[in-house]
Amino acid sequence: MRMTRTPVAMRARLAHALLVTALGACADAPEYDLVLRGGTVVDGTGSARRTADVAIQGDRIVAVAPDLVTRKARRVIDASGLVVAPGFWDNHAHLVTLPEHPLAENFIRQGITTILAPLHSQDQPFPMDAYRARVRMAPNVGLFAGHTWIRKRVMGLANRAPTGAERAWMAALVDSTMQQGALGLSTGLEYVPATYATLDEVVALAEVASRYGGIYVTHMRDEGAGVMTSLRETIEVGRRARIPVQVNHLKVTGAAQWGWSERILALLDSARANGVAVAQDVYPYTAYSTYSDLMFPAWALADGAAAFARRVADPATRVRLVREMLVLFPQQTGPSPSSIQFREIASDSSLAGKTLADYLVARGRPVTVAAAVEALIELQLAGGFIGIFHGMDERDVVRFLQHPGTMVETDGDLVTPGTGHPHPRTYGSFPRVLERYVRDSSVMSLEAAVQRMTSLPAQWIGTTDRGTVAPGQKADLVIFDAGEIRDRSTYIDPHHYPTGVRHVVINGTLVLDDGTMTGATPGVFLPRRRTGTRQD
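User: That's the sequence. What structure does it adopt?
Assistant: Structure tokens below.
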């Protein structure tokens, strides 16, 4: 006798089948630590933006696709309406106080996940391997062998060429630092004592870094009237030492040189066409920040403060000094005393934020370049200062940013909010590019800007597993509101974090979670990935 299935039985069997299927689907669902759901992915390659989910497991991106199954994800963040991009790379910042500021909050809040610290005019940690083993930090960090520290250690502030023994010692320090993980050699040739180095000295040290697969990074000898000569010197280091060269914070300073960006870029492009690997980075401001030393001819500062005071006290030497400074002033900064703003000045902290013109007015002196030169001498005798110099032209900044080979940096410092008077680049460089030059003026597209902040520097340094949003890449990500991102720091009132950056992920760990720092320190010191010729 044939049995027929009742509708009730059929429904029960169907329900059971659906339950088994659902349980199986749940069991088969991939496990993710974090999923960024429905964001606008700008992947760092320059490709057009797209809507997708980004899944992270451990320290890596494991999936990028629409509508990922997230039933077993530990956490899902709704990124709809937000941009999901690779974490930004800062190509030059000052990290000498990293052990005291391990969270690097003013950088993280810009969306920066990796910071290169060339240390070209500051002391480098040594031994570097012990420092790398000891320090824990939120961002990834790349370190360099610093020529200034090396020269000071070997020769002090002497204005002369090294002896054979001294050059060998300097080369040994570069060699040792490269063995301990440095990414290359850096120079700050505009500053004492590095400015006393000849091209031959720099090439000899760059050759050491080259053998390990390092790069050469430089603050050039002159960024004003001598910028073209300095650029040719930089290119020559690359050619002779057979080493890739990078110009930090490419600029042209001094009102007398405004507009030279076209010839600068033409020279860089010519060098590339002739086989020299050369790169450049910029920060998006028309003022730079540095030591008051820059307003003096290098010979006047040799051998330290006491020697400078003796020269100033000698009438004939002082006449020469003033004459040269009157020429130097418009070459280094704007056309008037108001173009120099004090940041840090030990002899009178109340001057922070004020200008050299304010200083002259308060003392009943004329606001002239001649009076400004005399004031600079007396301030230098009192210990000098760190200043903000309004000496660049916006059209040059835009032209540099538009070049497809230009990367981005802050040239910023680790800061404690409310302490000191930092340049606003310390708080806002990357948001400023996205606000001012992408959203407001359309100088470049969002895709182009992100590519120059991410994959371009990663590829330049030789890193293959960071810099893009793709499966297999390290999970360094920034999630931001493209309509709200804004630099809020100003020259007068600098201590403000930017707005618009919602989340920052470094090596799979949230370090900024919905605008709140988590306190996590997942950053690593970048390994050197380029191959050299040294046989160990």
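The two ends are 88 Å apart (CA to CA).
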